[in-house]
Amino acid sequence: MHRLWPVLIFAVSALAFANVSAPVPTIRPATLAERELTAWRSLTRTSQFSDVPHVSSSASGCGDVQPPQALTTPAPLMIRTSASTKVKVSFIIGTDGHVHSPLILESAGATGDRNVLRTVRTWKYRPATCNGVPTEAEGKIEFSGR
Questions:
Q1: Residue 126 exposed, middle or buried by CB count within 10 Å (0-12, 13-18, 19+)
Q2: SS3 for 38?
Q3: d(Cα 87, Cα 45) in Å, to the nearest integer?
Q4: What is the Cα–Cα distance from 36 to 5, expressed in whole angstroms?
Q5: What gap in Å lies between CA 21 and CA 38, rounded to an integer?
Q6: What does the domain layout of the chain look like in residue ranges?
Q7: Interstrand relation of 43-51 and 69-72 (parallel, antiparallel or unpaired)
Q8: What digits encode the pLDDT tens for the residues 42-66?
Q9: How confident is the model over 23-32, as pLDDT tens digits?
Q10: What is the pTM of this model?
Q11: Are 52 and 92 a contacting pair, CB within 8 Å?
């Protein structure tokens, strides 16, 4: 019994010191949304849609036209160069709802354009319809930092 006392005292003192130590603060990595807020103050978007004329659809005509509906359109991560920087992009929304052929109409520089094009290519839409049949539509969007 006398041999167990030193071991027991050592174990209790080790546990007491372990509980007294301060917890180590954990650093949470910033989410993409938080990084976007710090990189670009307020990103505004305006978009326009128009039908893409086809030889087959121009003869039939559309009675009931529904514009495309955005499903996933995250904002691009833009590097702020100035408050008046604008990027205008034109693209085609295919019958599959994917973005095709994005084209920069107004540039913000190589890096900004590359980020915008990369992001716009990932967007998904419910395609425009002509009399209930999916059809292609042209989309134009402007990103600006106001």
A1: middle
A2: helix
A3: 10
A4: 60
A5: 35
A6: 31-145
A7: unpaired
A8: 445 566 666 565 544 444 577 888 8
A9: 666 777 777 7
A10: 0.58
A11: yes
